Amino acid sequence: MTVADSGAAFPAVIEDKRWNGFTRPRFSRAAAEAVVSWLSDCHGAIAAAFDGEVVAITETAAGRAERIGPGADGRYPIGAGAWEWELTTPAADVAAAEQALLAGADRLAPEAGEVLVKINATGDDPGFPAQVDPVSGWSRSGTPRFRPDVAVVVVAWLNACGRQYPGATVAYWEDSTIMLLDPLAAIQDGYVPTQVMREADGRYAIGANFEWEHAEG
Hints:
This protein is of the alpha+beta class. The protein has helices spanning 29-42, 95-103, 148-164, and strands spanning 2-3, 13-14, 25-26, 46-51, 54-59, 64-68, 85-86, 115-118, 128-133, 143-145, 170-174, 177-181, 194-196, 213-214.
């Protein structure tokens, strides 16, 4: 979760219903402590602190104070239904590492049973080697399944496109699972990022509804 284009990100569970298109998060105690620390460090107009088990938030200019206790699940609904919380990718600055991955994308060669696929989003996008499922959906090349060393580059490429074209699908890793986040769909009730699990053979079927097409080798 992030709020107000702050660049800070915190893990939370969210309610299915949105508030004016924004998510309503509930934070674990550890995440709530991180939110409180961030508020204290970055927002001079807001004072935040734990008072026992309760989060005390004071808007100093308005003289408003709020006390937020944990719910039955032990989580804190900080700013839920009041702040512009949005789904986001982790705050870690990975752009440089991702650019290094993309710089070597042309060295990704197809192995036995693989073809090169791409999405021609910018006109000079790289081709990624993949096995192709014949069930194509929207894709013109079938549903590609990428081996792990290629999947990390595909994730890096998605994020590079997301930085260039706000609103494009971005991605991040949650342990061995790829999380695909569509910012345009994120305002819809019940939306959560799409999980791309590692399949039995180790491959990832990324973007079954993307417009993948065959690329020349």
